[in-house]
Amino acid sequence: MVSFLLMMLILAMVARLVLTGVGGRGNPELEARHTAEIARLREEVDQLQSQVVRLSDEQSFLTRLLAERESPAGELPPPGAPPGDPNPETS
Predict the structure, then answer these.
(1) Fewer beta carbons within 10 angstroms: which end of the chain, N or C?
(2) How far is C-alpha 65 from the chain's CA centre?
(3) Which residue from 16, 18, 22 is spatially nearest to 42, judged by alpha carbons?
(4) How far apart (Å, rounded) are the C-alpha atoms in residues 48 and 18?
């Protein structure tokens, strides 16, 4: 998801370079509009990045809660252990 956001930012920057020319000899009014658009896109990318971080934190929290719920007495199962009854004598 984050790579998609970075690609959008890079695409916007490349579009600006193509429209104004590599040397920056474009129309000043057009360049000002593009600069404002780039600033707006950067803000949106920053907002999306913060949402991705928040969702990642929520996913980690819920995963931890589910792991605690499945293990007896709140103990976490060892990494790679299959879910279910950890005691082979009871199954």
Answers:
(1) C
(2) 22
(3) 16
(4) 26
Please tell me the distance from the alpha carbon of residue 20 to that of residue 83, in angstroms, as a whole number. Answer: 58
Task: Tell me the pTM.
Answer: 0.46
CA neighbours closer than 13 Å in the CB half-sphere of residue 10? 6
Task: Calculate helix-pair angle for 28-70, 2-20, nearest 10 degrees.
Answer: 170
Phi then psi dihedrals of residue 19, to 5 deg: -75, -35
- Per the structure block, which two tokens stand in for 32? 């000002």
Is the distance from CB of 17 to CB of 34 less than 8 angstroms? Answer: no
CA distances from 20 to 15, 41, 77, 84 (A): 9, 18, 58, 61
Q: What is the DSSP letter of 81?
A: P
